Amino acid sequence: MSLPCVMVAPNGARRGKADHPALPVTIPEIVACAVDCQAAGADGIHAHVRDAEGAHVLDAGLYAELIAALAQATPGLAVQITTEAVGRYSAAEQRALVAAVRPRMVSVALREILDEPQIGRTRAFFHDCAGAGIQVQHILYDAAEVDRLAALQADGTIPAGEVQLLHVLGRYAAGQVSAPADLDAPLARQHARSIAADWAVCAFGPAETACLVAAGRRGGKMRIGFENNLYNADGRLAASNAQRVRDLLSHAAP
Q: How many angstroms separate the CA atoms of 63 and 55, rounded?
């Protein structure tokens, strides 16, 4: 399964209603948002679930409930779950979530999943996912992590062949802002390492749209939404995730 061309990331792990009243937190809200975003042109969703208090949680039961609800409400929409640790979950707990849910698609931050003292467990995880047909998108935050992924493929920790990547721009920059030029270094390393990749970009800050349009023009795919940015390209606060999708597509059109 290829990555969606436009994947919406509607909530993430950290923002809540105080940040934007239209940010979806409950499963019914996430499903309603997905319906609107699919109608706006998104063909995938990067999904986080929240507990009763609205906090990010890696909960297999909640993910199973969300996946089932999305299958009913948004047929054809690709669903990717996350293993984001947020400083709370161990690599073992992330692996356990994937084993319990068995999703079709999952995003995994390379820096969070590596179990360096027992790298064999990391290797088993990636190979088990490949064997089960679970598409793992590797989240990379800088060019050095591109080199690390290449090394892990070379030593067999990550299976050989095409990989799915997400280049994250601006997450650790001052003020969490990004620019299209931030993509130059990781893409240069990806090409230098001859990594066969189905790749996408997400970008923090008000230049999100410009970054994603630049990625699309360089052959990448685009992840958009309130997880990373609340503002449209014109600097105005977006009314919804669906509006962010429409705004992106209006700028990405040839």
A: 14
The CATH number that applies at residue 36 is 3.20.20.70
By C-alpha distance, which of 98, 131, 93 is closest to 112? 93
Q: What is the pTM of this model?
A: 0.96
Structural domains of the chain, count = 1
Domain-embedded: residue 53 = yes
**pLDDT, tens digit (0-9, with 9 covering 90-100), for 17-70:** 999 999 999 999 999 999 999 999 999 999 999 999 999 999 999 999 999 999
Element spanning 6, H or E: strand 6-8
Q: What is the largest CA-CA distance in the chain?
A: 48
Sign of CA dihedral 234, 239, 241, 246: negative
* SS3 assignment, position 20: coil
Structure tokens at 168: 């994250």
Give the separation between CA 228 and CA 42, rounded to whole angstroms.
16
Where does 74-142 have alpha helices with state H? 91-101, 110-113, 119-132
- Predicted pLDDT at 45: 98
The CA distance from 99 to 239, in Å, is 36
Q: Is 1 a member of any domain? A: no
Distances (CA, A) of 68 to 27, 63, 195: 11, 8, 34
pLDDT at 174 over 80: no
- Containing structural domain, residue 35: 6-252
